[in-house]
Amino acid sequence: MRLGIVVESLLDRLALASGRVPVPIIDAFPSIIMARCIMAGVQLGIFEALAASELPATGVACLCATEPCATAKLLDALVGLRYLRRTAGRYRLEPSARHWLLRASPSSICDYLLFHYQQWEWVTRLEDFVRTGKPIHIHSEMGPAAWGAYQRGMYEIARLTAPEVAWRVRVPRGARTLLDIGGSHGYYAVALCRRHPQLRATVLDLPAAITPAAPILAAAGMGARVQQQAGDALTDDLGDEQYDVVFMANLAHHFTADQNAALMARIARALRPGGICVVQEGLRPAATHAPSQFEAMGDLFFALTSEAGLYAVAEIAGWQRAAGLRPQRVLRLVTAPGQGLQIARRPPARG
């Protein structure tokens, strides 16, 4: 997938072919407004106001406690973005808004979009990063409010992907214990435990992540089968041969290659013979291939916020192989384009 200019008429096509359309302006300016309009629609309650019925701009403004004329401008912008439809001066939700942008929807991503306000601030520091090479290190910089927004947003993303992950990960026969490293809200562990009733999970994450994520995990109703444990993936002793499955989602891009290699060695020791290590990550293409738009943007964003970035499949498999594990072929996720599952198995005991 790629964001960019969408030609809607023959005149558009001819204008682009002429070479006189300032494509960088079209790439840069509308994208800023697009993002902020969607974020504002969630934060101000615009979409919720239209959940029950269509309304004029004055009706939306009354429900949202906003100024009517300015509200009409935002509503029309959301019409242009095809999240709303306007008929005879009244606005209603398009199906995509009803599916993704209402809190009552099982597919709601409202909290993730509210977390964009924090990410927006980080991106304003991109130029300083490029000049100096010094990243932000978000995990040591965030306060309690930002950590709460972070966990709620990450939970909504995990909720969309976890069912596919649980279905595609083949846990070892008779597996009983799972360690979810950096899992905070624990939803991947929840999905795997629901699919495998004999499985129990420990979710290891920083204390600052565990505190705001605890209510999210409690709401899953998994009781004692999924437990949180405060710690640090980079320094904690993971034990010896304690787990049948070690799962790590969207964490490697926050660590350097050396840190990931050292962590993988500890994961390998923590696995029982025949156990598996599952690394779920956004994947960078091999050096011989140009990155896609999303791959390049993700790589830059995580370099900005954590100093590392995305890794190629060969790099992740290399850490696993160096730790004595046997990597399998990567599984590309349908519900998370650009992400994959790199699974490796600890060899079974001899004899």
Secondary structure: elements and pairs:
Blueprint: H1 10-18, H2 23-43, H3 46-49, E1 55-56, H4 57-64, H5 68-80, E2 84-87, E3 90-93, H6 95-100, H7 110-123, H8 126-132, H9 138-141, H10 144-168, E4 177-181, H11 187-195, E5 200-205, H12 207-219, E6 226-230, E7 243-249, H13 257-270, E8 271-282, H14 293-306, H15 313-322, E9 326-327, E10 331-332, E11 339-345
Parallel strand pairs: 4-5, 4-7, 5-6, 7-8
Antiparallel strand pairs: 1-3, 2-3, 8-11, 9-11, 10-11
Helix pairs in contact: 2-5, 2-7, 4-5, 7-10, 10-11, 10-12, 13-15
Characterize the structure shown:
- This protein is of the alpha/beta class.
- The chain folds into two domains: 99 residues, Winged helix-like DNA-binding domain superfamily/Winged helix DNA-binding domain (Arc Repressor Mutant, subunit A); 218 residues, Rossmann fold (3-Layer(aba) Sandwich), CATH 3.40.50.150.
- 49% of the residues lie in helices and 16% in strands.
- Strands 4, 5, 6, 7, 8, 9, 10 and 11 form an eight-stranded mixed sheet that branches. A three-stranded antiparallel sheet has the order 1-3-2.
- Strand 7, helix 13 and strand 8 form a beta-alpha-beta unit.
- It is globular, with a radius of gyration of 23 Å.
